[in-house]
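Following the same procedure, sequence and fold were stored together, as reproduced here:

>
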Amino acid sequence: MTVTQTDLVPFEEAIDRYEPVMGLEVHVELNTTTKMFCGCPAMFGGEPNTHVCPVCLGLPGSLPVVNEVAVESAMRIGLALNCSIAEVCRFARKNYFYPDMPKNFQISQYDEPIAFDGWTDVELDGETFRVEIERAHMEEDTGKSLHVGGATGRIHGADYSLLDYNRAGIPLIEIVTKPIVVPADKAPGVARAYVQQLRDLVLALGVSDARMDQGSLRADVNLSLRPAGMTAFGTRSETKNVNSFRSVERAVRYEVSRHAGILDAGLAVVQETRHFHEDTGTTSAGREKSDAEDYRYFPEPDLAPVAPSREWVEQLRGTLPEPPATRRRRLQEEWAFSDLEMRDTVGAGALDLVAATVDAGAAPAAARKWWLSELARRANEEDIELAELAITPGQVARIQTLVDEGVVNDKLARQVFDGVLAGEGEPDDVVASRGLAVVSDDSALGEAVDRAIAANPDVAEKIRAGKVQAAGALIGAVMKEMRGQADAARVRELILARLS
């Protein structure tokens, strides 16, 4: 059954009667120099089918060789997620037939992953939720299909399809959670917070650039509903390749509403993959989901088992960075943020941006102010993540320095942001080209002050009578005349000097 928009049950109503159960599969492309099983460059982009060889194209007679750095990265991810590292693990062939799968099978891991039985704690709205990790396993990525023609960019309605195998064979780590059951109203936020934390973790480990916009970190969202109070799981759907934090949250919310609509109608949920549509926040059917036996897994005959020594494992354990939760607590103390300020910073996905802005020289409060107010507003208007804005933490820090030095004030700084985001250059270039520098020349300011006093004699008389707070009206008049570019503090000094 296809559920139309009118069949959806509002999320808040759905969670009154049903409990969502989630499972998240996050694919992380590693930043190794070469691919998982061959020497081809593992880089994003390039002319189609130029980063390929007989191995990653699956040509007869070619044999794979395991990338040692990829194995090391997989173990470091597993250790950072509190997983056990297998003493012996092996690769397996996962058989399925896609045009972008040149071998007609994927080299992956099945029942013997390199890392298993882990956990990580995520924070949301001041609460901590433990997400248990089923496994983290190694595999190779597929190629990429480009569907030409049609309105959606998908195969349905396309005139023809092109295949680019540059991505085929790039090392992937797939991190699979155990079923996640949290208070129903928290489920979308916990899903988002978990994926955000994984991104922070792999960036801190230095094993991936975690660019969701380029597909180097993407999430599959598995979700089922069960009547409140029941223990048996419902039938799940799997929304594939969700590529932003916001979309992870929206996918959970939509699927809860969609499943509830089907169950309320007395119908059965189909176990299937779903496509998420960024423009509408909805999903559409893909294919009926296969079970493990449908993939006919069997041990990869061309690769020996991987048996990392315990010495190697402990050596890698010693290279782990500060855990995300510990880092957040440390930064909160260093920045003197309240619990609410830190919670809002993390919730907005701005923690790393604020930290980088502070590292570039801005005060923590100023960095937080710009990212959570001015820049957050612009990201919302463009319907993108904060990190996708066309501005760097270094540029934000430079704009704050211009404010601190009195070159611009806060109001003018917003125009500097306009220019930088519009691609007009660095902050200093924008100030110069737009003529935004604050006017502090006493001659020009004095003339404007005299005109304001002459135009507002009643206000001037109040100031002469000792009501200094009335100076605000004259300061406002001067600022208006000078289009916000006057040095307000100097204007105040000149007014009081003239009227004292």
Summary: The first strand starts at residue 18 and ends at 29. The chain has 16 helices and 14 strands.
